[in-house]
Structure formats: C-alpha cells, structure tokens
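Input for the complex:
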Amino acid sequence: MTTAEIITIGTEIVLGHIVDTNSRYIAGMLTKNGIHVLFTTSVRDDAELLTSALTIAKERAQLIITTGGLGPTENDITRETVSRLFNMPLILSSDSYTNRPQCADTLYEGAMKLKSIPSGALIIPNEHGTAIGFAIIHNHTTIVCLPGVPGEMYQMLNSYLTLYKTQHPAEEYSIVTRQFHTFGLPEYKINTVIKECDINKKLIKIMTLVHDGIVTVNVATSSLIKEDALRALDAAETILRKALGQAIFGTDDANLEHAVFELLKEKSATIAVAESCTGGLVSDKLTNIPGISEYFLEGIVAYSNEAKIHILHVPEADITTHGAVSAQVAEAMAKGIRKISGANIGIGITGIAGPGGGSEQKPIGLVYIAVAGSNFIEVKKCQFRGTRMSNKLFSANTALNMARLKLMNNC
Amino acid sequence: MTTAEIITIGTEIVLGHIVDTNSRYIAGMLTKNGIHVLFTTSVRDDAELLTSALTIAKERAQLIITTGGLGPTENDITRETVSRLFNMPLILSSDSYTNRPQCADTLYEGAMKLKSIPSGALIIPNEHGTAIGFAIIHNHTTIVCLPGVPGEMYQMLNSYLTLYKTQHPAEEYSIVTRQFHTFGLPEYKINTVIKECDINKKLIKIMTLVHDGIVTVNVATSSLIKEDALRALDAAETILRKALGQAIFGTDDANLEHAVFELLKEKSATIAVAESCTGGLVSDKLTNIPGISEYFLEGIVAYSNEAKIHILHVPEADITTHGAVSAQVAEAMAKGIRKISGANIGIGITGIAGPGGGSEQKPIGLVYIAVAGSNFIEVKKCQFRGTRMSNKLFSANTALNMARLKLMNNC
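Predicted:
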C-alpha cells in the first residue's frame, strides 16, 4: 500500500492566521484512492525549513503532496526548493497550461516563475489559475507540487490521481471507509450500541466523532481484494443500520439539511422556517442545497416581539403570559409561518443564545423548537450549554432533525 | 526566541474526516506569546508514528504542543507513547483535576487512564472535561500534551501559557503581529498600494491573504524590546490606514458583521434584511454578534416570488417586467423590509447562486444588492464566479460592506 505525507506550505498557516483546509481535502481524496496517509505537515515559506520537511517526508512516505508556494512572489519558494533539493534545474515549460487571463502587472514580473518546473517533471495543468503544478519522481518517491488556492488545487489533484490510478490499478480500493452520521443519541450510547454489535473489531475499525450534536461513526476496513473489503463494509453497515435505526441520517458527505431536502423531494412537501435565536441559520443551511428553491418557501427571522406578532401572528397574550422564549411562542411561530407561507411543514425556534439575556428561570441555552404540519405539532424543550455560536448550531441541527423524523414517519 | 512545533494526533485528521482547527488556534496563541512556530504536524493514532513525529520535533523545536489521544479508549496513545519515549513511567495523579461529572460507564473503564501522567510531569488541570493534561521537560525541550476537544484544550493551553510567560518574561512580546481586514479593493491593487508605502519591508513583514472577497493584510515585526516592535507596528499602521482608507473595516478578530454592529451602536441605528439568493446568511452573520438584538430588527428570506410580493410588498409588475433577479426588485426588497420593520437601514439581495438557474442574460453569480435609508438608495450589480456557497458568501459580505460604508458616511 502506498504511504503518503501531505505538506502544506505557508507562513499564514503556522502563524495561525488561517485554518489549513487543504490537508483535509487531500487526505480524504488520497484515502479514497487507497493511499495510506501517515502524516500531514505545515511549514513556513522558508527554503531551509521546507528542505528539512521534504527530506524527512522522503524518508517516511512514498508519495508526497505539497500545496502552496507556487505563486509569482518572492515568498513562493516551492519550485526553487524542490529543484535544488532533488538536483533538477528549473526550466521554462513551453506552453502556459493555465487557463486564466492574467493581469498586466503580474504578467511581466511573475509569468516566467509561474511557468518554470524542475527539468524532467511531469506538468500538471491548472485549469482555473495561473500557476502550473508538477510531479517528479526521485529514488522511488513521487513528489507532487500543487498551488495552495483550493479551487485550483482540487482540479489538479484530481488530474494527478486519475493518472495515479492507471499506474496503480491494484491499489485502487484497498482501503474502504464509510461514515454514518447520526443525531439524537449521545456518543457514549452509540459506543455502547456498537460494542454490542456482532462486528469483527479486528478487521473493521470503528471510531466515533462528535460535532454540533452530530455523532459520526467512521467505519474502515482494508483488504488486498477490493470486493472483500466492500463486502465486509456492507455487512457492517447492515448491522449498524439495524442497531442505530433512524438515528442515522446520512452517509459520507451528507448533512442534516441534505437529509431534509431528500425527504422533501421524496414526499413532494414544502417547508418554511420562523427563527428567533438561530437568526437565519436554519434557512441559510437549507438554502445551501442546490435545488431547494422548489421546497423551501420562505424564512422569517423574527428577532423582535413586534416581528413575531405582526409577521408571524403570534398571539400577543402568549408573549405576555409565557414570555418570548416559551413552548407556546415556538408553537405559534411554527403554525404562523406554516400558514402565511402555505408550506406543508413549519418550523419555529425561540431561545436564548447567550452570552447575555439569561435568568434563573430561563437560563442561557434554553431553546424551544416546534415543528408543525397539517395533523401534528411537536414542541421540544432543549437546554444547550455552549457558546452563542454553538447554541445556534445545536438548535438549528435539532430543528432540522425534528423535521426529518416527521417527514420520515409520514406525520 | 523559543521555537515550537504543534502535533495534532488523530487518525480522523489524516483520513480527511475532519479539518484540524486546533493547530490554527494553538499557532495563533503561541505567536501572540512571542513563540516562533516552525512546523505543525498531524499524525495517526499509532504509537510508532507518534514516536517518530515526537523524535523529529524534539530535534527541531524547543517547545512541542500535542493535542489529542488523551481519552479513555484504546486508540488514545499519547500518555503511553510519551511515557515510553522519554522513559518516564506513568503514575496516577492523586486528584482528579477535572471538573465534569462522568458517566457511570466511562468511569470504571477509563478513569484510571484519564488520571495517569508520566512521573515528574507538571499537571495541567482540565476545567471543562475529564482528561487531564501534562507538561514534561526532557533535555531542554518542553513537551505539553493537551486533549483534542477544542473547548477543553483552549483553557488548558491558556493555563500553560500563563505559566510560560512567567518563566520567559523577556520573550513575551518579541513578535508582534496585526491583521487589517479590507473589502472592496482587489488583492493586486492592495499589493501595489503597499509597495508604494514608505515602510521598511526588511523590518516589517507584510503579507496579504484573500477569503470570501475580504483581503487581509498581515503585518508582523519582531524585536528583543517589546516597545520597539510595537512602535514600529504603530507607525506602519498609520501609513497603511492612510493608504487604504475606508477599505479597512477591522483588525485582528473583527469581521464585517462586527464592523456593521459597531457602527449601528455608534449611530443608534437599526437594520433589517430581505434576502433571496443568500438564503438567510446575512441575518445569520449579524445574529452571531452578541448584543445585536437591539439593532437587528428582522430578516426575511423571500425565496419565492409570492413571499417577495406578499411579505415585502415588491410590486408584481417589477418582477414581471424586469425579473426576480433585477435592480428594481433588489431596491423594492430593501425599501420593503425597511418599511415593514421600521428599521433605519434596509438591505435587499436577489441573485442566482447556482449551480442551476442561469441564462445568457442572467448568468449564475449575477446578484443585485440594495441598501436603503431614509434619504438614500444604492443598488449594486455584481457578477460572482464561484460555487453556490461562495456566491452566497461574497454576496453577504458585499451587502454588509455597503451597509458599513453608508453608516460610516452618515448617509
């Protein structure tokens, strides 16, 4: 099995100015292609440090993917460093292999640099930008250098991997992984359920991860024969699905809003959302899904009592008697948005996101979430314990999950 | 100057299942404390690979911070690996140093493990969770091991850094950095402006970064004497602010919604938002700010024409004549939300986020954004070229920036 290391190059990463999302993308793509990622490293735009990182990586991995440092400025050192370290002088590639018109002022200064590659390297064309990438082979290690701009890098990595697969057909499926995303059960319960499952834990590796209330179960197995690995994974999936039931809302790249969208499509149902403490997050999540416009009719962010009363027709007496954060108001919001939009399902959310606004009776993180349909209304009282942002996220995910279960169970 | 390496431990990272955000946080905090981060490394939950990563890090850095692998399961290998590598046998710490009630089922299995530390280590208490951290010193290298859960790690890192500062008072401010966030000028123009600024580029390092239409200018300098570095940075700031003017909307942790919030507060003004293609993202961003509820009155996500007409009172004729994606409809949406909410400023956004819905006349990424006040209306036509998600983000940021400039210039 090919072993790999990912090296992301950029002072902005080691200074903590940006989150390195490239590593995750590359790691995911390599894993999908049966490549065993051992390490990811980030390093400053510094020739000496990059040389050291490449030297170490070459000792421990057969494939090295670097991103960053291919631009036209002085801080871009990848071409020169790789050329020097592996003793392959830089040459100008004859064609541009890029697809973007360049600004006049960068054309003269940096164009030469953008087109230069170590002699003997394979060119990886850049369809979305100006910096070409390249791959070299040095003493049985392949080093692939890609730019750091995600939109350019994705396409170039995929081009390289297409080539890789033709060269390594046997490895293509040697590792198979699948993620099952669940909502509604705490992580320790899921782990208890998994422990009791009749799955060979020596062959099938299972790992759980929690984020924003979602518990993801990662299942991985490997085999020299692709079919064997897939068969083992399928068998584990059957057992896990039986044990976890409707708690599983999706696999791999799916999220809760995607699960809701698929159910809306399947049932030809429409949805509308009235939000207070989540401030538009549920609408934002739903409208991230291409094609949602047929099913998502409208969203109201009714932050003020006036908006709750005048737009959503929440009875003023409900607010006076029970307070804006109450089961009654959540219910009235869900029913109100359902009525004014004409949607099949209405969601209402009211709560205290924090950090201010809490009291002894109604502490920060108290959120009421209602889902209304033609023949049902469900109201859930939640007590979250996070920051303003995570209380918003937990509330939004809980609301989406409630809508999902209602849609699944046809009520 | 102390050199450092960050090691994040977790198979989920090198498989690409999660983005490693811990590295960014730690890198930022170390940099703020004058520590020079050279590398960040991520490694599988594998004792042999972690041993190799720690051995390499020890050769090239004086301070190593690890996160992850301190939990109760078999996959958690940090305690054992550090203990073995540095020949410091594990012992049970006498007190728990944690603050969270434990589940009965994890108490028995993992509690011993969670409390064990290499003999001679300094304990780093965990105020928000069950796994204690520790720091050891081995041949002049300090190794600090923290859990991977961000909410627990943050506090523990800060505890350690408080101690670090008392031990390294002179280094406290040896590196100073400041970020200036701009909107409205393309990166190459900003770089041209910076080039012409009378700043000593040998002493003051300047770097630009782009994300979602925002161009961030990172300025860094270092000196043995804190006051010298700060004075140099202040002088550079004065020059940059003069050169970039109102394009700068904030420094360091500030974002566009925060800049709008500060101006709303300063001017005692209120805002309301009518969104179509951004789907609630502007409302969501604004409501991430604590204290916004006094200034943000309401948001409407009017995805359907019906919602635009009935809730926002957009004239049906505007939609029929010019189409839902038009300057006229954006203007009517901004005026409509302003009127129904009673806010001082109304924002209206209509466009085609993609990937479907484009035509030759109205391509994907075409967005009209309007900002309305008592005595002004501004409508901007934008043509973005990204994915659905990035078109939403660019549109939301452009709208927030338009509102910011209107508020700044009192019109």
